[in-house]
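During the reporting period the student researcher (J.K.) took over the structure-prediction task from the postdoctoral fellow and processed the backlog of single-chain submissions. One of the processed entries is reproduced below for the supervisory committee.
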Amino acid sequence: MSGPLGLGRLVRADLRHHRRSFIGVAVAVFVASALVTGLGVLVESGMRGGLAPERYAAVDVVVGAPQQVDVPEDLPVPLRERASLPADAARDIAALPGVDRVVADVTVPLVLQGAGTDADADGAAPVVVEAHPWEATALTGFELREGREPAAADEVVVTTGSGQAVGGTVVLAHGGIPSEYRVVGEVTAPAAPERSAHVFLTEQRIGRLDPHDGAAQALGVFVAGNDPEQTATAIREAFPELVARTGDARGDVEFLDSGAARSMLVAIGSAFVGTCILVAMFIVAGTLSLSVQSRRRDYALLRAVGASPSQVHSLVAREVLWVSAVAALLGIAPGYLLSTVLQSAFVTGGVIPGDFALAFSPLPAVGAVLLVLAAAWGAARIAASRVAKLDPVEALRESATGAPAIGLTRIIIGIVLAAAGISVSTVPLVLRGQIAAGAAAGAVMLLIIALAMLGPWLVSLSMRLIGSVLRRLSSAGFLASANAAANSRRLASAILPIALGIGLGLVQIGAPSIIAAEAATQATAGVIADLRVTAPTGLTPEAVEVIRETPGVTEASGVALSAAVIDSYDFEGKLERDEHVLQGIDPERAAQSLDLRVREGALTDLDGATTVAVSTDAAQSLGLDIGSTVTGHLGDGSPWEATVVAVYERGLGFGDLTMAADEVSAHTTAGLDAFALATVDPGALDDVRAALTERGFVVSDGSGQEAAGAGAQSQQGWVNLIALLVILGYIAIAVVNTLVMATGERSREFALMQLIGSSRGQVRSMMRIEAVLVAAIGMVFGVVVAIPPLIGVSMGISGRPIPALPVLGSLAIIGAMGALALVALWAGTTAAMRTRPIDEIGSRQ
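J.K. obtained the following structure tokens:
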């Protein structure tokens, strides 16, 4: 074995003669490569993919304000509302060389209510249309097909196929207030927008409907002879505070959800990749450990004939890298297919738009191969560390008797990690919300690593406790107990993937479930109004006044919803920015509709944009108190600074921040209240409900109020579910892989047992008992490592020690992982006993 040439021949010989022991490694690496490639495509798509333009397809350059707040050394935070353009932006851009003309666009959401349509009469969902100024038809290439352009405030032009005839009338409601319009024209375009229906009004009418007085939301720049990209570059250089896009990137300005989808994909892909690599390290290391264990006699002989520890390390590393390189390359193509499956799943959950295009290039494949090979090399170093440093004589003895119990140092490290995991589990008692869920995930990973360190010792201890019972059951029970006690390392390597899947799965579904349950409880308990009233696009102040003046209504107040990006600093003084739900209320009237459970200060002190109330969670995490100053950006990116005047408890149900409603709605895209809460005279509930429904409002019980940010929570829950399915799928493959390998290497043991008098039935019975032991211990360990984080989250969020877990989901995870263990051990045993005992004994040296 002297020199690289001799080592290379030995590697090739090992790969040729021990194919079975490398199959498990290849499978684990293949799946890891496919996962990381698919996730890498998502990350790249978040950087280069996007939405192709629809309404702005006919214009050369589209200009908008930045739809994000930059964060130093981190991903930017996308803005949920449309950021406003400077008032003179259109004039200044039009003065640049090469610019032919600039067309401003404004979008006002309206609801089609009748006059020529029976959409409302048959109970169908209202049709939401987008209204624009007539001049914006040029941005899409709309041309008059019939009639003329609008000239009066009550005139409208519709698109072909809308079902509205020129000369007819149509009722369009804005914020719950209906208006009648005469259809004076019909337009058509070479490629009509598909996302929503559009109508066109006069610029003056749009200005009156728009709460921002018709201020331009986007600018379409037509270029005279120059290359559009040159003009876009000139715009960016002259106005660095603006965003200028050409080609498919124009969709980034047109669609608000494009930027959010980009950030979401980068965040999801990055987080998934990190988790997958960590899980891959566990699984590949466990699989390699079994592979090395099955060939410990070979390594013992190598050490006995003079191989140095570094040569053994090199041998294992080369073998693993050869196998991993082939498996990683084979995993690339399935990885690209997986990215499209993940895209469909995220679209189904509303996480990204259905028309968001993925970006494909070789970069994710290259990155996946490098990352997976690095993980495999690290796992190889871990797996080879023990056999490489063994004394030759001791190595030969272990090849016959198996590895001894783990050392005291490893036990101490495991206990320290377990203590750290339990300590991190208490973080939710101090910090709540999403931080609590993140702490739970970190805690369960620490506990799983501790379990990996202590696994053989814990299995041996468990077998001593239940061994006496098994020995009394039958001869098969005696054999299973003896085998488990003597091979605790092997049993632990089979149990760990099961515990990993159960522990991760329970925390992944448990922590969000606990937070969502408490948010729903707070939202229900915090609404003291009788009715929740809204309209498909929101409510104007006039609509809230109509609700208030409805007979039987004693009080009504509008509630606006948005988001704010808050500045904070970590312990090193590094600036951090996080998005928080921002609620707007009427400070004088909200007391009759909402009970936020104020702990300090008073909501009536809310006045303008310079005051804010914060939840106890936000106050705790951001270090705020009455009189503290909050800085950040409102939903449309406007810089914001406010003084804390109240602290309330029900932040999960109503958002971390509360301001005066008119200030919140002024910084939203539509400028409307999300809904109104109405208090009704006793006995007048049915009459009020009927009256408001007849006026076109959507009415529901006040107790049916959703938690603020429920949509974002739902999206995050869907992301967690997909992540869980992906990770559990990988772990499931690893469980089968590991158990089949662990059982397959025992074929000589099974043959010897039969040759000395045991029947095939007794051997199978022994393995059935072992399978039940592996499944049961794995399930118990998995539940045990999940309990401290889940109790910590539950105590911190709801004050209750018993977590509000989804029962069916939890049982499904536990049962599925246990069932996998039983099936895998059955399959491994059947395969291992396929050869006749005498032939099996004779085939080994």
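The committee noted the following: The chain has four domains: 1-51+255-404, 87-249, 406-522+709-845, 528-704.
J.K. will present the remaining backlog at the next meeting.
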